[in-house]
Amino acid sequence: MPPSKQHSDERACEPFKTLIDPDQRALRGPFDIIGDVHGCYRELQELLDKLGYQVPDDPNQATPSTVRAPDGRRAIFVGDLVDRGADSMASLKIVMAFVEAGEALCVLGNHDDKFRRWLQGRDVSVKHGLEGTIEDFKREPAYMRDKLLAFLSWLPIYLWLDDGKLVVVHAGILDEMLGRTNSRVRRFCLYGDTEGERDALGLPIRYHWAADYRGEATVVYGHTPLPEADWVNNTLCIDTGCCFGGALTALRWPEREIVSVEAMKVYSARLRALGHPKVRRTQPRR
Question: Strands, E, within 80-228: which ranges?
């Protein structure tokens, strides 16, 4: 690699070299927490605009100098930026630009993590929308592999914020897990309450962890697409299935105001009905 190109690639990865601690209780809002994007870039543009964020129309022009949050606010993405929608790379570019500008934070989703492993050359199953993300990626310049790897490897598995009053995570978290980052916590944050079982469609069987949540911190999460954002105990799921023709949803915190934009089309056929998973009747294996 020519020295100039190597230095350019290193600069592109520089913002994502210092790992972020999930414990960010000293960081206070107001925040705009945005649900699973899944490559729905146009809906993301529309939602950000509705929330008052400055976003370039061309995703290739998304840089730290061309994006801006409303004064005093910051966006937080619940992960699953890629797969299923029309443009995963555009979605990644806009989120990375906001993060680099210090105008947003993001947690890791299971689809993001799978794409990260594919970028590393690891053996993953190319389905559930990953095939489209890979095709998008192949049109990108060579340096994007290192930048995307740096970004996706940098993302925390959850964020504990606002003096401990707020947690943002992709799939779920239990009160006892806060402050921890071991392998069990990581799996729960990325996949929710599962035990490796699969249903007749070959999809992981999930359990409704929020039905038993009694923590003091409000947990905002995605991963499980619902017909509309739904409060259960002190948790809110804001995945409203944009890629399935639903909507892209945000929660304004601390106002607790729901803001949504409808999907422009159905990008991916859903394999099971939208809604919360079943409530667990037995204690999970430890």
Answer: 104-106, 158-161, 166-169, 218-221
